[in-house]
C-alpha cells in the first residue's frame, strides 16, 4: 500500500485525567478514513510519544492498525534517543503489523553525523522493518544532513525521510541527491508541504490534517497531480491552521481545536498544559477562516 498524500500525525486522545481514550481513538481513525486521509502515524510527536509509557505506546499502535484494517497505511512512531530502545520499539512496531516505522533522530544527546548514520544503520539491520528517517531539529537538537541521508538510503529497508526543515535550500539539496523514485521524501512542515510536493516530494506527515483532513487530502492530491493552481487555492484556505496550530507547542493547539470540534476530550499529559486562554480566540478564528467551524 503506497505511502503518499496527506498522512496525519494522529493525536492520542485522552480523558481529563490523562488516561488514553480508546473509544475516541477508534472514532478518530474512522473519521480520518472517511474524510480521505491517506495514511496514519500512530504515536509520533503529535501523539505525545514522550509521555506515553511503552505499554501504552505499543497499544496505541496495535489499536490503530486494528481499526484501520488495511484501508490505509499505518506508520508507527518508534524513535528513541537510545539506539537499543529504538530497536526494541521498532521490532514491536513491526510485530504490531505497522506498514512502516517512523524513527526520529536521537534527541537531547546530539549525536554527530557519524553517530546518526550508525544509529539508523543499527536499527535497520537489527529489525528489518521498513524505516522512515525523521529529521526535526527544532525538537531534537540535531540535524540529519542530506549527505547522511544519502549514505543511509542504500540500506534496503530505509525507505524514506520525513523532513521538517521546510526551506527551499533543504528541499533542493534532498531532491538533488538522486535517491531514486522508490525513496520516499515526505514533508514534515505543513506550511511548505505544497511547494515540497510540487517539487517532487510524495506527501506530508501533517498536524493540520488532524483538524481539516478532507481539505489536506484534497490539497496534497492536487499537488501530486501537478495542479499547482488548485493546490495553491486549497492551501490558502489551510494557511491559518498551518500557522496558528503552532502558537504554543504541538499538540496543545491541535488538541484544543479538536476538543472545540467535539472530536476528543480535553486531556493532555504534563508537562503539556491546556492552551492559554489568551490564545483561544486566535485558534478559533483559524478554525473559522479555514471553514472548520462556522
Number of strands: 8
Question: From the coordinates shown, what is the CATH architecture?
Answer: Alpha-Beta Barrel
Number of domains: 1
Low-confidence segments, ≥5 residues, pLDDT <50? none
Shape: globular
What is the strand arrangement across the widest sheet? 1-2-3-4-5-6-7-8
Provide the descriptors you would attach to this structure in a database record.
294 residues, globular, TIM Barrel, alpha/beta
Describe this structure in words.
An eight-stranded parallel barrel has the order 1-2-3-4-5-6-7-8, surrounded by five helices. The radius of gyration is 18 Å and the shape is globular. It is built from twelve helices and eight strands. The protein has one domain: Alpha-Beta Barrel (TIM Barrel). Helix 10 (228-244) packs antiparallel against helix 12 (280-289). 46% of the residues lie in helices and 13% in strands. With 294 residues, the protein is an alpha/beta fold.
Helices and strands, with pairings:
Layout: E1 5-9, H1 22-35, E2 39-42, H2 54-68, E3 74-77, H3 83-95, E4 100-104, H4 113-127, E5 131-135, H5 137-140, H6 146-152, E6 158-163, H7 168-175, E7 184-187, H8 190-199, E8 203-206, H9 213-224, H10 228-244, H11 252-260, H12 280-289
Parallel strand pairs: 1-2, 1-8, 2-3, 3-4, 4-5, 5-6, 6-7, 7-8
Amino acid at each position: 500500500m503506497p505511502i503518499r498524500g496527506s498522512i496525519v500525525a494522529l493525536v492520542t486522545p485522552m480523558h481529563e485525567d490523562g488516561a488514553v481514550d480508546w473509544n475516541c481513538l477508534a472514532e478518530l481513525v474512522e473519521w480520518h478514513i472517511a474524510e480521505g486521509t491517506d495514511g496514519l502515524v500512530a504515536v509520533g510527536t503529535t501523539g505525545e510519544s514522550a509521555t506515553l509509557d511503552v505499554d501504552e505506546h505499543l497499544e496505541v499502535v496495535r489499536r490503530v492498525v486494528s481499526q484501520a484494517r488495511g484501508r490505509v497505511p499505518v506508520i508507527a512512531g518508534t524513535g528513541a534517543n537510545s539506539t537499543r530502545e529504538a530497536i526494541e520499539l521498532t521490532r514491536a512496531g513491526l510485530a504490531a503489523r505497522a506498514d512502516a516505522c517512523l524513527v526520529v533522530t536521537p534527541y537531547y544527546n546530539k549525536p554527530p553525523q557519524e553517530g546518526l548514520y550508525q544509529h539508523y544503520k543499527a536499527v535497520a539491520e537489527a529489525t528489518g522493518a521498513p524505516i522512515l528517517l525523521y529529521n526535526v531539529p527544532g525538537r531534537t537538537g540535531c540535524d540529519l544532513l542530506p549527505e547522511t541521508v544519502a549514505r543511509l538510503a542504500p540500506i534496503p529497508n530505509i525507505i524514506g525521510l520525513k523532513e521538517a526543515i521546510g526551506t527551499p535550500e533543504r528541499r533542493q539539496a534532498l531532491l538533488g541527491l538522486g535517491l531514486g523514485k522508490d525513496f520516499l521524501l515526505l514533508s514534515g512542515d505543513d506550511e511548505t508541504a505544497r511547494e515540497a510536493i510540487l517539487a517532487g516530494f510524495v506527501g506530508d506527515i501533517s498536524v493540520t490534517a488532524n483538524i481539516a483532513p478532507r481539505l489536506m487530502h484534497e490539497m496534497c492530491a492536487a499537488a501530486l497531480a501537478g495542479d499547482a493552481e488548485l493546490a495553491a487555492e486549497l492551501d490558502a484556505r489551510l494557511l491559518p491552521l498551518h500557522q496558528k496550530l503552532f502558537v504554543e507547542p504541538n499538540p496543545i493547539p491541535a488538541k484544543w481545536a479538536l476538543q472545540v470540534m467535539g472530536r476528543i476530550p480535553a486531556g493532555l499529559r504534563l508537562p503539556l498544559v491546556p492552551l492559554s486562554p489568551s490564545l483561544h480566540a486566535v485558534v478559533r478564528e483559524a478554525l473559522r477562516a479555514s471553514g472548520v467551524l462556522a
